[in-house]
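Person: Please comment on this record:
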Amino acid sequence: MTDTSLLLKAYYEALYERLQANKELLIRKIEELLTKEIEKLGIEDFDGDKFAAYLEACLAFVDERIETYNPFGIQYTFDQTRYREAFELELQLDWYDSRVEFKNLVREARSKAQTGEMEERLGFLAEELIKELGAFPDKSIISAYKAEPCLRKLPDYIVARTIEDIVR
């Protein structure tokens, strides 16, 4: 495993630990932000059942995102070839394009990994990545939603915004 791979793994582990520790706060913030965003969209017939359904979708996405960062999760159980195939499939299925954001994350991790003394500084460097870049793929989700807001994209957007509030 390269130093860049080790740093990316540490980045995902740090995100996983931070989000797991703050899951209750995430849930509270999601409900608040969902209410505000629905009001912004100006949807008049958004009743309690619709709100509950969207809130449930957001909460499911929180669990999904946390597991994405799980150090024992799927990204580490596949071999490299299968992981690349799974990643490409995910990119095709998502309504947002996160390829540029991922390239930036890898480029920044590679740059930080070249600073030497990786073992001693791994946790610190992972925290720096989070502070500088946030949680992948939040920037892609947020910018795609802002470019074209709609209800279909709302749960991903709410979760991304809330995660960014928590991790930074």
Residues 48-69 form the longest helix (22 residues). The chain has one domain: 3-167. The chain is about 80% helix and 0% strand.
